[in-house]
Amino acid sequence: MNGALLAAGGLAAAGIGVSRLLPLRPLPRPTGRHLVGTRTVVLDDDRHADGLPVQVWYPTASDGPAAPLLVDGTAFGRGLAASYGIPAALLGHLRWVRGSAVAGAPPLEVADDLPAVVLVHGWKGFRTAHADVAEQLASQGHVVVAADHVGGSLAAVRPDGSVQPIDTSLLPPEGTPDYWPSARRLVERYAADLHTVLDAFGGPHLPLAGSRTLLIGHSTGGAAALMTAGAHERVDGWVGLDPWVRAISMAGGSLPRALGATTRILRSEEWTGNANDEVLLPFAADLGQPVRTIAGTGHVDFTLLGRLSPLVRRVGLTRADPDVTRRATLSAAADLLAGLPHPGPSDPPKASSTG
């Protein structure tokens, strides 16, 4: 590990631009029938003084220059370096990384029978952590939304360019007395953000979304998505990617015994048999839902971090080809999206909660 970092550092010191050796278009090209547009909005939220930044991906007919994958790659690189020990000097290329989505492209009209999808990043995540999934789903006609969960995001960037770094006080070190209560509050904080997003659908900021919604959440975001799926009337499906359900139960919380949403649960090999399984497996059994383990994968492999730099894998953050978890996530999403009920006047409403 150290040798890899020293070697890359040696290239930089020798005057060779490391960024020229690293991927600037790392995402797979979407294969759906539509081009993809993207934009960022800020939703009013009394809990966040400057609002909640939300990125939207959607189908468009307009081509153009691809938007930056990271709105502020420099700030993100600093956050990544501080959190994971990668020298910031080796992450300078992130400011130039692009996806396929076109910034500000005019949206196509979205069919109401196509569910919207909300992606939920984990602790130390970021709103484009699953952009490779978002772009593919948008190319198939879905509106896809992801918030920067302010405080838990490595670098929450607003449209005016201001950046709020991660607030590490929200989750103290494991083993401290307030760790599990803080973990549960963190999940609840993310869930409250999700209620803000879902309540904004159909309004001036998010007018495009259809009437049904699938939540896909990773780790802390997976637990928050689960809490929301059991409470918000708009949610019809939940995909949990290593959902950190132990954070709910360890501080006196309880998981729902049943969901009014169809479900898929994916687990990395790294998390197989860990303490989270003590909560996850009985919960999945109550739902009658198997937990699918993806062989050879680590917890962070559910994000696109491994696409941003080979150094991420060299320092041990990821284990597998990013396409492995992307395919599994898209397959789980496709299963649920194909089976979600169509809205109709006879559909009974689910109980709603704003907590």
Automatic annotation (TrEMBL):
UniProt keyword Lipid metabolism present: yes
Recorded GO MF terms: 1-alkyl-2-acetylglycerophosphocholine esterase activity
UniProt keyword Transmembrane helix present: no
Biological processes annotated in GO: lipid catabolic process
InterPro entries in UniProt: AB_hydrolase_fold
Keyword annotations: Hydrolase, Lipid degradation, Lipid metabolism
Identification of the protein by name: Lipase (Secreted protein)
Native organism: Euzebya pacifica
Highest classification ranks of the organism: Bacteria, Bacillati, Actinomycetota, Nitriliruptoria, Euzebyales
